[in-house]
Amino acid sequence: MPDLSSQSEAIDLKGTCTSVAADGTAAWTFSVEAVSVETTVDSGGKLKFDTKKDKECVTGLVRYAAIKGVTFTASVGADGAILSCSLEAWPKTCDIKIEKSTTVKNSAANLFHDPTLPREWLELIFHTAPGKGKEWKRTLYIGNQEELDMRADGSETVSGDNCARVKLETADQPKDAANKIPREAFKSGKVSYSQVAHCALKVDIKGGVVAEKSVLGVASQARWEVSCLKKGFDPAAAKAAEKAPK
């Protein structure tokens, strides 16, 4: 079985705000328009799958193909907290042609971690919202529930919006070994959050993922990114939301 040296995963997620309550809680609908994954292995070669181009995939990547076209809803608090998500796990199967492939390809596909969960994507998009003051703490669920130290870091313009820039890193952990997160697994990164669109337009977070204790200590490194490619009022979506049963 080949050793996995790198892996990337991307989804094109379309979100539509359907209503906003008096307390700032927003109702959203989401649909996955595309999915792509890619890996390289130490022994050489790459394995790719992109729903925009490929009509078939190896068995191990069916769980990624199954994400395309999925729709779900969520309720997001005024502070960006994900209050509810109608989909806590992606479907694992779909009707797609299975590619005839080599043992090496199948082995590489099976090394992929499961797709990032819907709620985790929403945490990156919404719950990275700035807090009050210059510094604050917030618990995000990105791979595991983790408290992060966050602080204001100026501003910048992204996609035409004036965004609040935020720096974050894993908060100091309890001293007892049972609860302490290994230093190599700490997360850190930057967020550019639009106060107009009420979502993060750009996110870049890095962190380790420790699967088990080893001589090297770190099993792998992970990176989470969000990039807002398009935003704005969607008349068709607004009209559909008006007609939807309450």
Overview of the molecule:
By secondary structure, this protein is mostly beta strands. The protein has 4 helices and 13 strands. The strands form 3 sheets. A 6-stranded antiparallel beta sheet has the order 8-9-10-11-12-13. Strands 1, 2, 3, 5 and 6 form a 5-stranded antiparallel beta sheet that branches. Strands 4-7 form a two-stranded parallel ribbon. β8 and β9 form a beta hairpin. The chain is globular. The protein starts with a strand and ends with a helix.
Describe the structure concisely.
The chain is mainly beta and 246 residues long. Helices cover 12% and strands 45% of the residues.
Outline the secondary-structure elements.
Layout: E1 4-20, E2 26-41, E3 46-50, E4 56-57, H1 62-65, E5 71-76, E6 82-85, E7 97-98, H2 103-110, H3 118-125, E8 135-141, E9 145-158, E10 161-170, E11 187-194, E12 199-209, E13 220-227, H4 235-243
